[in-house]
Amino acid sequence: MTLKVGIIGCGSIAQHRHLPEYANNQEVEIVAVCDVVKERAEAANVKYGGKIFTDYNELLAFEEVEAVSVCTPNYLHAPISVAALKAGKHVLCEKPMATSLAEAEEMIDAAEKSGKTLMIGHNQRFVPAHQKAREIIESGELGKIYSFRTAFGHPGPEGWSVDGKNSWFFKKDEAFIGAMGDLGVHKTDLMRYILGEEIVEVGSFIETSAKEFASVDDTAVCVLKTENGIIGTLAASWSYTAKEDNSTIIYGEKGILRLEDDPKYSLVAQYTNGSVIRYELGAIQTNENQSNSHVVDHFVESIESGSAPLITGEEGKRSLAVILAALESNEKKTIEKVKTGVHA
Questions:
Q1: Starting from the edge strand earliest in sequence, which strands make up the sheet with 28-34, in order?
Q2: How far is CA 118 from CA 1, 161, 267, in A?
Q3: Which of 26-30, 40-44, 162-166, 209-213 has the lowest mean pLDDT?
Q4: Rounded CA gap, 288 and 8, in Å?
Q5: Pfam families this protein is in (predicted)?
Q6: What is the pLDDT of residues 164-204, one digit of tens each?
Q7: Cα(331)–Cα(217) distance, rounded to whole angstroms?
Q8: pLDDT digits (tens, 9 = 90+) for 201-237
Q9: What digits encode the pLDDT tens for the residues 233-242?
Q10: Which ranges of 163-294 does DSSP label H, i.e. alpha helix?
Q11: Where are the alpha helices (DSSP H) in 164-306?
Q12: Residue 327: burial class (beta carbons within 10 Å; 0-12, 13-18, 19+)
């Protein structure tokens, strides 16, 4: 059974992740590629095949397509995903899934009504070190969890986006949010996943300090509190000029878990009794270090098995909700409660 896939948006994320990962999956055939810039769709076609489109509506009308990846600028994620689900296609949507909770709920609703799979591309959950950390915390090995700090930062998307400094990443009307949407939402999703808890309150400072040409944030520091009172910080930035930082440290009663950029040991557990366990689980993926993110394979597997993916629309929405609360906190200069839905 071969899954016939279409890619909507042939920019960097499609070129580095979606297209090659679909191409490497034996169960998949790429049958359509779409980009408003025709040359990009043509370049994808040369390398991976697939019928060329410049209008996603026409791709969705192409009956052969059974599933799509939505790899467009953020403001188009929800409208395209909803249209695709209504057209009876399975959807893998890049993060952040939407620009508001109302949009996210519309996507979830469309998936329910169509009976099709909706998955959000939060790849951090598939990193072996992150899965191991979740397991250790769940087992109670660290005892009560007190605090955490997590960061995701690099010099900025101009280094790898197809449009460089002119990229949609820097334009508020297309990106909606900057580093917070690009990187911060990965980390809110990761912390919810590793801790196994929802984040309920947020305080934040969000600035544009490094990219004077941008109309979105590039440096953010947030304080988060979970339902059981675990407090921690989250930094998301495009102003880490020399080296990427993708690290998380969790502080518990019986020990500390370090998920840092160690080339060999991506998880180090230090216990209060003096023992240290170094896990060799492969380096944490960064823009410089990209192998299979497992996102595409998991999406394909979910469709074939009919089981819910690890990152459903609901999960994507909850991670987005934390970012929306952070934006509100920065704007109002208050601590904000994380809303769980439009009406909640």
A1: 51-53, 28-34, 3-8, 67-70, 90-93, 118-120
A2: 20, 25, 31
A3: 162-166
A4: 24
A5: GFO_IDH_MocA, GFO_IDH_MocA_C3
A6: 999 999 999 999 999 999 999 999 999 999 999 999 999 99
A7: 12
A8: 999 999 999 999 999 999 999 999 999 999 999 999 9
A9: 999 999 999 9
A10: 172-175, 179, 185-195
A11: 172-175, 179, 185-195, 295-305
A12: buried
- Tracing tokens 């929802």 back to the chain, one arrives at 198
Residue 198 structure tokens: 């929802």
Between vectors from CA 270 to CA 267 and to CA 272, what angle results, nearest 5°?
Answer: 160
Mean pLDDT of 92-109: 97
For residue 76, the 8-state DSSP code is: G
Q: What's the rounded Cα separation, in Å, for the pair 9 and 15?
A: 9
As given in the structure block, the two tokens for residue 228 are 């059981």
How long a stretch of residues is the chain? Answer: 344
Report the candidate in 68, 18, 76, 74 with the shortest Cα–Cα distance to residue 47.
18
Nearest to 81 by CA among 43, 111, 41: 111
The tokens describing 289, both together, are 């270090």
Measured distance CA(306)–CA(299) in Å, rounded = 10
C-alpha angle 32-28-295 in degrees, rounded to nearest 5: 95
245-252/255-259 β-pairing: antiparallel
Secondary structure (3-state) at 222: strand
